[in-house]
């Protein structure tokens, strides 16, 4: 009888956290968010080290590897700059045709999307919601709830990130704090 090769995975997906030695964490603070929020004066009045979100990433292959997949969970804190809820910078993929899955784990928010043709729309993110992001579609998460927003993601390892959407006019949609809940506004 031959021995079966049982391998340790080294990474665990525990609730909303990714645990294990191969997991890396990226932190985005106010200092990283120049030009993102509509109210620039409100953004400038905030401490540069205030954390908006962190991303836990598991890279079983090196970023850039064709055919590989990367896996992450984004944790966006609750809060707002002026009336605008905390959000991710938002990006397109450097290899434009690369698609991605997002799914809601905890908290409530919105996924803002914008196609190459300029069509913008939102999807409501809640625990169990699944979101297919087609290629050539810019994407950004907004925590429009009052608790932390945890969102899972799986994307091709060679997709890359580019943030030019911010210089070219942004998404055209902003999610603002209103008297009776989030307001989705078009610019
Ligand atoms: Fe992406």
Keyphrases for this structure?
187 residues, mainly beta, Jelly Rolls, 3-stranded antiparallel beta sheet, 1 helix, 15 strands, globular, binds fe (ii) ion
How would you describe this structure to a colleague?
- With 187 residues, the protein is mostly beta strands.
- Helix content is 3%, strand content 44%.
- It contains one helix and 15 strands; from the N terminus they run E-E-E-H-E-E-E-E-E-E-E-E-E-E-E-E.
- It has one helix at residues 40-44, and strands spanning 12-14, 17-19, 23-29, 51-58, 69-76, 80-81, 84-85, 100-106, 109-115, 120-125, 130-133, 137-142, 149-156, 173-178, 181-186.
- It has a six-stranded antiparallel sheet, with no helix packed on it.
- The mean pLDDT is 94.
- The protein binds fe (ii) ion (FE2).
- Fe (ii) ion (FE2) is lined by residues 91, 93, 100, 139, 155.
